[in-house]
Specification:
single chain, 8 helices, binds zinc ion
């Protein structure tokens, strides 16, 4: 129980850093300096106003100086990250703290990708480019196969996943351009899926794509029905892929078992 609480608090604290990444990365600002400040008036946030989730409630969602409304995304990201850390712990146990930390970093990077792509339609290279070699190194060494937890993923499965993710989405991009005469798939999606494949293997790529497409279609059709959006209006795919990858990591084994039997 203590471990769950510790993971939750750790998730809140790193979630606070994710907010910095989500705001600064697409604006090409440094994520280490300067310290957090209000995006409206530029006043540095005091340490006692920078407590994850709690400060937002105490300040009632307003900057202490200029009273500008703080985005509800801040506490949301922190809370979401904390919940995901608890789910990762629940799923993979505490046998290896390193595996746990790698999956924490992975889920956190998916949260950052989700919110940045949703708002700016880009997936930052600063996550995926270091992420791809790291995914293959970690996938080949310490990580388990997330769908057969007892076995390790290994170099072959990690490389196959990398090729399936990167190559598969590269093919979709080329086909999409040939058939639709427009860019259906961005380079960011290709790099992101190469990273996901290196970490989760080819089964992870298939599951992520399947879950992402399913979520994307459901959301797309609902938006068309509810808000009268047009068919073919541009919706970034990255956020759905990020959710798909989270589902694959956390529930992939169950989904596969349910699907096969
Ligand atoms: Zn302010």
């Amino acid at each position: 129980m203590m471990l769950y609480i510790a993971c939750f608090i750790f998730g809140l604290i790193t979630g606070s850093f994710l907010n910095v990444c989500i705001y600064r990365m697409p604006r090409d600002l440094s994520i280490v300096s300067p310290s957090s400040r209000c995006v409206s008036c530029g006043t540095p946030v005091r340490f006692y106003d920078n407590i994850p989730a709690l400060s937002y409630i105490l300040l009632m969602g307003k900057c202490r100086q200029c009273k500008a409304k703080l985005s509800v995304r801040y506490p949301l990201v922190e809370f979401l990250n904390a919940v995901l850390y608890v789910l990762v712990l629940n799923r993979f146990g505490y046998d290896s703290p390193w595996v746990l930390l790698v999956y924490f970093a992975f889920t956190s990077s998916l949260i950052v990708i989700f919110f940045i792509d949703l708002e700016h339609q880009i997936i930052p290279d600063s996550i995926t480019l270091p992420g791809i070699p790291l995914a293959i190194i970690l996938g080949s060494t310490i990580l388990p196969d997330p769908f057969l937890r007892v076995e390790s993923l290994g170099f072959k499965a990690s490389i196959t996943g990398f090729l399936a993710g990167g190559g598969g989405f590269y093919l979709i991009a080329i086909l999409g351009r040939a058939i639709l005469k427009k860019d259906a798939m961005g380079g960011g999606d290709i790099k992101m899926m190469a990273m996901v494949g290196g970490l989760l293997g080819w089964k992870g790529v298939i599951l992520t794509t399947f879950m992402g497409s399913l979520l994307g279609s459901i959301t797309g059709v609902s938006l068309i029905l509810l808000k009268g959006r047009e068919w073919g209006s541009k919706i970034p795919f990255g956020p759905y892929l990020a959710l798909g990858a989270l589902a694959a990591l956390l529930w992939g084994e169950d989904i596969l078992r349910w699907y096969i039997y």
